Amino acid sequence: MSNTKVVLPTEHCETCPAFTQLEQMGIKVGDFDRVIALAGNPNTGKSTLFNALTGLKQHTGNWPGKTVTRAEGGFEFNKLRYKLVDLPGTYSLLSASQDEEVARDFILFGQPNCTIVVTDATALERNLNLVMQVMEITEHVVVAVNLMDEARRKGLEVDARSLSRDLGIPAIPITARTGEGIHTLLGAVAEVIEGKTETKPLRVEGTPEFQNAVNELVPMIKQLAPGIPNARWLAIRLLDGDARVQKAITDGELNEIVSRQYQQDVQFSKKMSVEGRQ
Amino acid sequence: METIQPNDVLAKAESLRNNLSTGFRDEIVKSLYSEAEKIAKRAVKTSSDKKYDFDQKVDRLVTSPIFGLPIMLILLGIVIWLTVSGANVASEAIANLLFALGDIGRNFFNQIGAPWWLTGFLWDGVYLGLAWVISVMLPPMAIFFPAFTFLEDLGYLPRVAFNLDWMFKKSGAHGKQSLTMAMGFGCNAAGVVATRIIDSPRERLIAILTNNFVPCNGRFPTLIMLATVFVASAFPAAITSFIAAGTVVAVVLIGVVFTFLMSWLLSKTVLKGEASAFTLELPPYRKPNFGRILYTSIIDRTIFVLWRAMQTAAPAGAIIWLLANIPYGDVNLARAIADWLNPFGLLLGLDGVILLAYIIAIPANEIVVPTMMMMYMGAGMMIDGPSSNAAIFDLLVNGNGWTLLTAVNLMLFALLHNPCATTIMTIYKETKSWKWATVSVVITLGTAFLVTFLTASIARLLGWA
């Protein structure tokens, strides 16, 4: 938890109260200015980061697949209220199982202001697949390279700058368990949302003929569902024959889903505040 | 501008897809992976592999084909032994305290001249129900949950999944079912929710329908009490806790066997199909956070489950008191219903009171033992609750004709019978189908009736009971 903070010499700024301020708000989400989604592979410490930020005691466990629903909480950072949505841990967003669908639907249709992808510093290569899939959906992504303490114990050195440069988005080393790097992470998130940091997500382009196919499909999707973000991603999924996306298009769900997602969120928040747990 | 129809988009996508060269998906996936590899290589430098080696050595041992299963059994045995031996003393102390408080309350009500039915309803009904549930449930949960959460935090659960994977596969089920089964030990409703990690709907249904065959924490106290009072009491005092723990472990194993059997049966009949492959990650062992373990296990689990049990125990206590005090012919209503159920109960090696207790306890299985005790006592045997094991033994055996068969069959029935109301609701929510929720009840209840009927018949045939 965040109360046992490891203070490293380079982090004086974060611990200085005048610089940034983090206030845990638990489940009192209410009105909020910004929505942040927490995505990541299973067992990378998403729930631990969620707890550290919100002060909630969402159950954490050391087994993949522990979180199968969305959990929500709130915090205040630099006088702005954030709603934080903890998504189920997934290896991909191709929606094979229900937990993957929960995660994907929220990133796609919930339109969070920013998505933090929590990665395991000790298994970065495998984790990057999900990062790149999230980057396909949205430009507002920040990578949290978690479990830095474990990486150090294992003798691994992670160069976050190189990672950030290659991915085209901020990459922040953190240790959610001790609170190390959390303020820097939130600062990076705020800058991405405010447009102070311009992200240039690395995207796998595929073959030229594939690119042409995508470019032909995108305008049609935009015409069908005006204002839909991620039209490019939807086009790619359609070309891949994704049944879930096909269904969303024929049902007209594409248009409804944005408003429905919002209603669900309100209901869910109410339920959380009544039960106080999941 | 002409309007565009959804089907136009799909048709366009279809035709574009057909024009693409077949390998375009692989092409994208391949470049995704190679890109990830390149980036990771540039960003990560390794200087030593020490810790990694240690984790691997431990994993080789706990997931080895020879030692994997025995280690698992030993760990399960230790957890249950800790629970049994610790809970025994604490339960008795709590029962003594709460029953004494009940006496004070009852006397006070008598002194101020409260009507007999009010005193009876409040102190012999509602309060006694609560006192029983707390003394029977709190101690085992307060020991079991922290121990279970410790193993969970450490990262042992995925290793369990690894060890049991092949057995689930043989049963035509998903290997991850072992994880949801493990969660079922805590609470079956939680286990049912956890099945969301299983991708295939077929295998997920199997996992949902069979989750109830592992005893949840609400049912452990029943098993522990019966194992301690009946099975272990035949052995010297020094080893009773080991015998009791061994009995509970055996019952748990029977539950696991039934999980496999039923999974196999389902996958061969209504839920036909092949087991799907999956990758299971063995996460690194992590130093458990003791503060969090205590918080999670005590607040999120123990208090939560206990509170739920208390919410059903209070009305159940009231109902029992009413049933026991509403006259019906020569006897009271509780007696009459129990007598009516008795022939069927005896057929299963149980009795009418036990079945009535199960009916009253449908909202929460954990209150079965308290309900049963109160009904036996309501027959006018005793005023105070029996707090020691010897007193319980005396009440059941000498007072109500229990035999070892009754105890064994009640343990089997507690293990196999229908899910509690919360779990049934959860199954409905997860499957969105009353059909499957009903099937889950029919399967479990059918198994429970069948198994207890068979054991009772065999025992009687062989002259054991």
Word description of this protein:
The complex is a heterodimer of chains A (278) and B (465). Chain A is an alpha/beta fold. Chain A folds into 2 domains: 9-194, P-loop containing nucleotide triphosphate hydrolases (Rossmann fold); 208-275, no CATH class. Helices cover 44% and strands 15% of the residues of chain A. Chain A is built from 11 helices and 8 strands. Chain A has helices spanning 12-15, 46-54, 98-109, 124-137, 148-153, 160-167, 182-194, 208-224, 231-239, 243-250, 253-275, and strands spanning 22-24, 34-40, 71-77, 80-86, 114-120, 141-146, 156-158, 171-173. In chain A, strands 1-3-4-2-5-6-8 form a 7-stranded mixed sheet, with helices on both faces. In chain A, a hairpin with a 2-residue loop joins β3 and β4. Chain A is globular. The model of chain A is unreliable at 1-12, 14-19 and 260-278 (pLDDT under 50). By secondary structure, chain B is mainly alpha-helical. Chain B has helices at residues 6-19, 24-43, 50-62, 68-111, 116-154, 157-170, 177-186, 188-194, 201-210, 220-231, 240-268, 290-325, 333-347, 352-360, 368-378, 389-400, 404-416, 421-431, 434-461; strands at residues 44-46, 327-328, 331-332. A two-stranded antiparallel ribbon of chain B has the order 2-3. In chain B, a hairpin with a 2-residue loop joins β2 (327-328) and β3. The longest helix of chain B is centred in the first third of the chain and has 44 residues, at 68-111. Chain B is globular, with a radius of gyration of 27 Å. Mean pLDDT of chain B is 85; it is low at 379-383. The chains are: A alpha/beta (278), B mainly alpha (465). Chains A and B meet through α4, β7, α6, α8 and α9 of A and α1, α2, β1, α3 and α5 of B.
